Amino acid sequence: MNNWFEAVAIITTLIIQVFIPGFPKEILLIQAGSKYGLYWGSIINWIGMVFAAQVGYEVVRNSVITGGKFSKMIADYQQSKWLTKLEEKGNYALFFLRLIPYAPNDVLSLLSGSLLLPRRGFIIVSMITAIPYAIIFAYVGNFGASHWGESTVLLINFGVLIISIGITLFFHFYHSTLEESD
Prior knowledge:
- This protein has helices spanning about 5-15, 25-65, 70-75, 80-90, 90-100, 105-115, 120-150, 150-180.
- The chain is built from eight helices and no strands.
- It has one domain (about 5-180).
């Protein structure tokens, strides 16, 4: 592994993105595979995803315990089907929900913290369920870099990021105008 700085940047960004709704973390996971190959890319992805889940869980858990900002925000999710499943089955449900493709894993981490799920079970579930995502996205990045070049994968990732930001802003402003008209 030749550039540890970028690996640390990917892991740090994965941790921060837990608190940024709509941020496509997949571009970071693909970039790790593109830059570091399947083996090291998978390890970087796994470390970043596990730490991100744990940081999100701990921040919300501490906020709920102390009655902070996140405890008020989580109240908006009280009718969420994800929250209902987590309340009923705990870490057992978290395990299966996390394995569903495109499940909101970051939201699941935050909700798990708000429900005060047992920490040890949460860590174990996070470590196990991050493995397939880490490997698959590192493989996609590695495959893309070997066929089209690392710079092309970076350009595609940048395009996806811009499109995701645009879609998120569109829905935010569209939703805001609907609320104002009511």
